[in-house]
Each structure stands twice: as structure tokens, then as C-alpha cells.
Recover the amino acids of this structure.
């Protein structure tokens, strides 16, 4: 059984497990199936906006898909959530990624 099949099997048992959903999306990214990953990330964050690791991966996926405006939005939303959770490490990681992206446009 491959990784995606295992994760899907576990999601049948634990349908609202944010870690499993996040892991599934990352597996789809590895396979070049960005649209599937994007939809999973969006559904995950709609259901569990506190799962802050997903903001970075969604924004990076959008950035790499040629959607920098959407990426900026998700980096900022992740920063707000990280600040709300007082998770300054994640806040600064998102902030750095956002600065790198915006430097591409201004530099």
C-alpha cells in the first residue's frame, strides 16, 4: 500500500484529523497534483484555521503555481493566526516567506 492509500485509509477512521489531511496534501504535491493539494489545504483551514503549519504550505504552493497574490493573502492570514496563538516562531517563518515573495516584485 502506498503512502496516499495508507493516509486515505486512516482518514476513513479519523475523518477530521488535520495532521492526516495535511500529510495527504503534501503527498499530492510530491506527485505534482497541486490542485488536489490546494483543495485539501483549503478544506482543512476552513475546518481548522488553527492548524497553522498549513498556511505556509498552501501559500508556497500558490506561489509556485504562479499565484503570488493569493500566496500573499495566505501568508498574511497565517501570520494573524500565529500571532493569535502567540506562536512567534511560525509567525516569523511566514513573515520571512512573505518578504521573500514581495522582494521578488520590488527587487
Amino acid at each position: 500500500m502506498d503512502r496516499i492509500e495508507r493516509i486515505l485509509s486512516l482518514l476513513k477512521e479519523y475523518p477530521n484529523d488535520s495532521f492526516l489531511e495535511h500529510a495527504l496534501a503534501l503527498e499530492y504535491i510530491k506527485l505534482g497534483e497541486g490542485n488536489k493539494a490546494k483543495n485539501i489545504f483549503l478544506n482543512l483551514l476552513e475546518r481548522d484555521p488553527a492548524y497553522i503549519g498549513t498556511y505556509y504550505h498552501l501559500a508556497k504552493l500558490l506561489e509556485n503555481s504562479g499565484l503570488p497574490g493569493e500566496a500573499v493573502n495566505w501568508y498574511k492570514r497565517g501570520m494573524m493566526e500565529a500571532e493569535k496563538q502567540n506562536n512567534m516562531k511560525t509567525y516569523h517563518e511566514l513573515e520571512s516567506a512573505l518578504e521573500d515573495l514581495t522582494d521578488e516584485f520590488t527587487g
Remarks:
- The mean pLDDT is 95.
